[in-house]
Write a structure and sequence with these properties.
Strand content: 15-25%
Mean pLDDT: 92
CATH class of the largest domain: Alpha Beta
Radius of gyration: 23 Å
Helix content: 40-55%
Low-confidence stretches: none
Number of helices: 16
CATH superfamily of the largest domain: Aldehyde Dehydrogenase, Chain A, domain 1
CATH architecture of the largest domain: 3-Layer(aba) Sandwich
CATH topology of the largest domain: Aldehyde Dehydrogenase, Chain A, domain 1
Amino acid sequence: MILFHGEVLENKEQDRILKGLYEDCLETLKNKPKLRIEQVIRACDRVYQKAILGEYDEIAMPLLKMADISYDRFLSMAKLFSKEGLEYKCRIELGEDYANPVSLANGTKRYRYPLGILFHIAAGNVDGLPAYSVVEGLLAGNINILKLPTGDSGLSIRLLKELIDVEPAIKDFVYVFDVPSTEISTLQIFADIADGVVVWGGDVAVEASKKMTGITTKLISWGHKLSFAYATPSVSDEQLYELAKHICATNQVLCSSCQGIFLDTDSASEQEAFAKRFFEIFKKANLASPKLDIGMCGKNTIRIYNELLENPNKKILNADGISVFIEEDSELCLSMLFRNVWIKRLKKEDIITSLKKHKNHLQSCGLLCSSKEKEELAHLLASAGVVRITSGDMARMFAGEAHDGTYPLQEYSRIVEVD
């Protein structure tokens, strides 16, 4: 489906729309009133109010069940669209007086303008994320062209259509297309029109976007990241249970999901004892969580069996479709996902040496330690490149939170200074 000037159209209309898309965008820039932040916030808050009243449950509930996301978590995520949440976000990212120009000492006035036209290449690992990416573009005042991810549920178009129905001025600032990633010529049209290309995805998606993006176009990548936990021997069972709940809740498919645990030790026996301790806690969290799809449980069992056939000496604790791999190396890597965790030794003195090579791939670390250890370890992790240090719930979200170490509203804006 296509969303064009507030109307939902069939994909067969795509060629007709593409022929005049650039002129449509220029017409908006030349002759349409500037989109104000308060208009966007008011529309988002209305959609948020509808969400908490259950008006989207018929589309949201099946998605929540499929993704094993609780209704409470859904409401917490929906709060990001609230007036309170968005106003706080704007103050944090753009400054307290974000709606007004700043007077500089020499009489110059500093204005914030939108980048212009944004082309969003969305990822499909979180339903509703494509719509949220567009909302961020709208808050900065941009025209937004959204490429839906493959297999999109329809939630993104539904939410954006609702925004337009509440605030019709938004309709000239949102275009949504259901274009496959293989349709390179169409994606190139979008990239050529855009002042900025916003890509959500892994290295392959970012690299492909770089090839499409000309030297006059800004590339903003929110690429797939790797996240992990770092624990010291002093970690409590309560902290480990919170981490285990997070692993079960996210099934390790988010950028912020814990892939494994580094333990501050160089002792193999201490590592194995810790792994056994965590595995018992992990099993309890697994039993208290929604069950994994039976097909995925079967796939995990087969993969673990094959791993043991190929590496008979490998130490793997597994039961009920979940596992803990006791590894000998200290390399950060992706896990098998879906409740399969690695545990590796990594002394705090080696944190920077081991992690720095991963540079822009680092995102969240669940730091599990005593309060007296936290400051030193947080500094080492941040110096290695980690941009988000949390406790057990590594997927928590709140208004004003940065994206991978930067503020999106700043990335989607430019500063204009006028004497």
